[in-house]
Specification:
By secondary structure, the chain is an alpha/beta fold. It is built from five helices and eleven strands, in the order αβββββββαββαββαα. It has helices spanning 2-9, 113-117, 134-142, 168-173, 178-233; strands spanning 21-25, 28-32, 49-53, 61-62, 75-77, 85-86, 100-102, 122-124, 130-131, 144-145, 155-157.
Amino acid sequence: QAFFCLLLCIPWGSSCPPSCQCMEREGAKAVLCSSRHLEEIPKDIPRDVVFLKLDANSITRIPSNAFRHLSHLEEIDLSRNAIEKIDRAAFKGVAAGLRSLDLSSNRIHSIPKEALLALNAKLRLANNPWHCECALQEVLWEARLDLDSVQDITCHTAPRQEYVGKPLLQVLDAGVNLCSVRQRTMDVAMFVTMFGWFAMVIVYVVCYVRHNREDSCRHGHYLRSLPSAQAHAE
């Protein structure tokens, strides 16, 4: 009876994932899962965690609502993983309270701006194979980036070869607007599409006129042949 009473007194969410270590840090709960060969974010993280370290693992994706139940979360360290994909709602539920988010040294080449722009956290995005595009530019302009690491956000690929290998901040400081580059690309694509449709219409009209002209010629030959055939018959 005393055992069951003890179970009832244990608060929900106080257990620790088997591959992690839970401890008190600065008077708050910290869950340490560094270098544990994790391939995904653990499902059984205590709800009252404040500091969460998931660095140096093999996590490849941050799915939607990955931390939604962790309402006290203030710091997440996801550095040195193999993250390639971050869903739009990856940090839904923790955006308001999160103070620090480390995504450095992963395999991220693009990220939905919706996933980060709602955050008030200080972001570390360095040492990823970024594709320098409009969405990344908007993140750089509007998100709270860690100033010590912003120079290490480098263009691994880009719309123009001359940007490759350069820090994104350097490219933008040179007056490049990646969003206008995308707009120009869309304008060119639209122009090519419209030109294609226009060419198809012209070809159709030419074929239609030629077909009608041939029919008219055949009909004229037929009419001219009628009197001579009549005379021959007489």
